[in-house]
Amino acid sequence: MPIVLIVAEQQPDGNLRKASLNAITAGKQLADKAGAELHIAILGKDPAKVAEELKGTGAKAVHVGAAAELEHYLAETYAPALAALATELKADFVGMASTAQGKDLMPRLAARLKAAMATDITGLGGSGADIIFNRPMWAGNVFAEVKLTTPVKVFTVRATEFTAAAGGQGAAEVKTFAPKIEASKTKFVEFKEVKSARPELTEARVVISGGRGTKGDFKEIEALADDLGAAVGASRAVCDAGWVPNDLQVGQTGKVVAPALYIAAGISGAIQHLAGMKSSKTIVAINKDAEAPIFQVADYGIVADLFKVLPELRSELQKLK
Amino acid sequence: MKILVTAKRVEDPESKIKVKPDGSGIVQEGLKYKINPFDEIGVEEGLRLVAKHQGEVVVVSIGGKEVQEQLRHALAMGAHRAVWVNHTGPLDQLGIAGLLQKVTEKEKPDLVILGKQSIDDDQNQVGQYLAEFLGWGQATFASKVESLESAEEKNKEPAVKLTADKKAVQVVREVDNGLATLECQLPAVVTTDLRLNQPRYASLPGIMKAKSKPIEELTPAGLGVDVAPKIQVLKLASPPARKAGIKVPDVATLVDKLRNEAKVV
Where is the Electron transfer flavoprotein alpha/beta-subunit N-terminal domain (chain B) (predicted)? Predict the structure, then answer.
């Protein structure tokens, strides 16, 4: 039987990166189409807790590889360990969420497996040996149907296009394996976390983003985000200027979000920004410029100053409570 | 230091991309072409490193005769010489990485700097494939701690830092929830993120000088690389259009719509 292997990700804080659950759903869809069995791999210094969480997500087996050398993620140590596992399992497909780690690791792993790869898949087609991957190109202005012709096929999953796999779907067999460790020419120096009390941008139900129109003043955006339990995002211009941390950037070159509600305040709506948010269910645009391209994708638009609209919006929303 | 940088030819990021009715490709008429923005950042970083540590920046591009435009652009920015891999027809990320491997083995640079992704395919693969093919370390999504409006940026300081013994580079990477720093032994592969630097404009004297800088021509056959694509793009389509929205006159109407129509608050 063909094998689909999904690589799950442990965050630096030891928890499971939630996008892994969306990748597992994609893996399940793929396994159904290919008539394959779903397996999950997790690597780390001590991934036992995460493996427990993965057990009930509907896979046949969870492969746990623990080693001290895997404490800090490096493509050069993770790729050989996963390649050895994939080869031993005779995996036909290897996939992972399109997180920063997924994007760094999977091409290196694919190179080891002499595999072709599809990045950021948004859907699946075909059946049996003829699987088709759907993926965005040109900043989401084009969607392509792609076929990989190498024996092993590698992919990363755009998490916002698949639901998160729920727990309680039976109990996968947890198998530990001794990861193949290779010396790395790269060493981990440090990780500086940007801490936030707000929900993670890619997982939030509501996202409020600010652009150049904020002139760097995010106070009103943050206040509204706190009222709504929303995540805060930003346009590229705002990150480039150093007004907010880089990891808040929504767009082709930043994060892709698809919340129930996306509020764009003072964002013109450049192609590269739209690539990161136009799958949102409802889009609200607040902009002084009635001609701003953001109004072409917004369900509801207000042509006005965001510093006037946002406080009003807060007090109107307060009234509803 | 010898630094190899890439300069892929891509559609101008500001252009409106339209799919042909039969889904076989994109409409080429009226499109402008540029050097991939992430590659341009790579050229800039290479130039800054060489300005600080001496050496040479070699720029490589793969494609038909038209990619010489992008090579000349990088030469006008200040790159010293160019390598053109003359190839027409389909090419996938495996093929590109295979060709770059051969060019790298020939040139023996200390560092290869590529864009993290090209804005046409959006694959984000080639740098990582190349690092594995060469058996080198990789630092993807290289960024900087300071903003692009900082004094460091205006002084054109390289963000990729050479260690004291000059045998490794320290690279700050943009990752989920923060910034990670890696130290890569040289030679290594680095891919650029947007906030690594602000690329310079090509000056008029630079453009004049670029005309006399050498472009070496190579071919996939000459490099011994089979570039038959393993990634087949079967069909292209436009994304589903969003239904037209409305402009509302005031915040009260907006809240009413969000509550009763969209049901999101």
Answer: 23-227
